[in-house]
Amino acid sequence: MKFSLLLHALEPKPDRKALEEITVDVLSIARADAAGILRGWFGIVSSGLSIEDATAFQAGLRTLGCETDIVPDGDIPSLHPDFRCHLIDLTAESIILTTAMNRRQERGRGEFVFAAAGIVERERPVSDYEMQTQVYYVRGTGYRKQVPTRVTKSVEKDYFRIDLFFSREPHRISFEIDDMSVITYGGRPIRMKNRTELLVLLADLASLQPAERINRGLRELSAETLYPSLQAYEEEIRWAFYRLGAKG
């Protein structure tokens, strides 16, 4: 059986050098892993550990003021597949959700159990032409020529993500906004470049749940990049679900 370390709280976040020092007692974690662990510091510190390594890492983190639980990997909640929508409206009694195909559903506030939102980094392939040197041979003689060549690169692009969780199917409703797409809230289009409108939506969503039932993006009402990847964003939700279950 493999185990994970789950934080009691997201703060404090240790210094990288201090984290590197305690990894010497954990056989499966190298000093070089510290930077990646801190980049993914969203509740699930590390997974796939033996019980010996999990215990040693837990003891080391405690010296840095970070309390953790040792949890079997299989006990961390998984997330339902997401059902994508493009329009959201809030009323006193319900949350109204509409897909791009104009399919509308109304969900009662009583079945709404958790909300997450935030700006996430995502690598996307981008193709463009660059001038590159090619070597050509004519009658045994080579010569160089600059020619346009299609090159694909990975470029980091921010996008805005929302996930609403409900007690009945579909359990997970999601929204995404990037440079090429918008969603509609309260009859207004919400775009990535309009951070004021994003903050209004964040504040309204945050008001629907107590602090333990929203993610950091909603608690901090941040319109800046917070999550380095979708995995980090989703790990924080899974961590929060575990904490809610642990509290009964």
Keywords:
24% helix; 2 domains; flat; Ribosomal Protein L30, Chain: A; 5-stranded mixed sheet; alpha+beta
Describe this structure in words.
- The protein is 24% helix and 40% strand.
- The protein is α+β, with helices and mostly antiparallel strands.
- It folds into two domains: 73 residues, Ribosomal Protein L30, Chain: A (2-Layer Sandwich); 133 residues, no CATH class.
- It has a five-stranded mixed β-sheet with strand order 4-10-9-8-13.
- Strand 5 and strand 6 form a beta hairpin.
- The longest helix has 17 residues.
Strand content: 35-45%
Q: What percent of residues adopt helix (DSSP H or I)?
A: 10-25%
Number of helices: 6
Q: Main β-sheet, in a few words?
A: 5 strands, mixed
Helices and strands, in order, run as EHHEHEEEEEEEEEEHHEH
Strand order in space, largest sheet: 4-10-9-8-13
C-alpha termini separation: 25 Å
Low-confidence stretches: none
Shape: flat
Number of domains: 2
**What Rg is obtained from the alpha carbons, in whole angstroms?**
23 Å
- Count of distinct strands: 13
- The chain-level mean pLDDT equals 90
Structural class based on helices, strands and sheet pairing: alpha+beta
